[in-house]
């Protein structure tokens, strides 16, 4: 599985690509941070981010794109910019038929460090260790993008098993409801007869 991890942001957008093998083995292929000037028009900033992310998708051919889910922040303006950056990247992936998975910051931290409230230094240290890197990825947006990709590699098999189990349970319920309906229908006919 080749995962493109994205830590979305307007000022700094972390992009990474890792290859996941069997078990928990992951290899970093590339990581970078796209920067846009704060004084630039919003639409132009989003275009720069989208262009960079789409170039990565076309170059690295990921099988899935993992994006950090924005769910709450104290600064609404920052949250909006982060969501917009994530949105243009998800759109680029969708146009290429690449599935997109969203993970919350606490899911990522928990997957990588074992602690859903870990700080940026802990995440960076664990990413460095997990990937066997010689130096810590900087800035933190690069480490976060790698952490998102790692999180997806490790969570995807579990998420797939859960989806299959839910689908099987839904199918079983459908068959049960149909059988129950048939029994009730037969009982109603027998009662009339």
UniProtKB/TrEMBL annotation:
Pfam families: RuvC. This is Crossover junction endodeoxyribonuclease RuvC. Binds 2 Mg(2+) ion per subunit. The active site is at 7, 68, 141. It comes from the Bacteria. Its EC number is 3.1.21.10. InterPro entries: RNaseH-like_sf (IPR012337), RNaseH_sf (IPR036397), X-over_junc_endoDNase_Mg_BS (IPR020563), X-over_junc_endoDNase_RuvC (IPR002176). Its cofactor is Mg(2+). Mg(2+) 1 binds at residues 7, 141. It comes from Antrihabitans cavernicola. Mg(2+) 2 binds at residue 68. The RuvA-RuvB-RuvC complex processes Holliday junction (HJ) DNA during genetic recombination and DNA repair. Endonuclease that resolves HJ intermediates. Cleaves cruciform DNA by making single-stranded nicks across the HJ at symmetrical positions within the homologous arms, yielding a 5'-phosphate and a 3'-hydroxyl group; requires a central core of homology in the junction. The consensus cleavage sequence is 5'-(A/T)TT(C/G)-3'. Cleavage occurs on the 3'-side of the TT dinucleotide at the point of strand exchange. Homodimer which binds Holliday junction (HJ) DNA. The HJ becomes 2-fold symmetrical on binding to RuvC with unstacked arms; it has a different conformation from HJ DNA in complex with RuvA. In the full resolvosome a probable DNA-RuvA(4)-RuvB(12)-RuvC(2) complex forms which resolves the HJ.
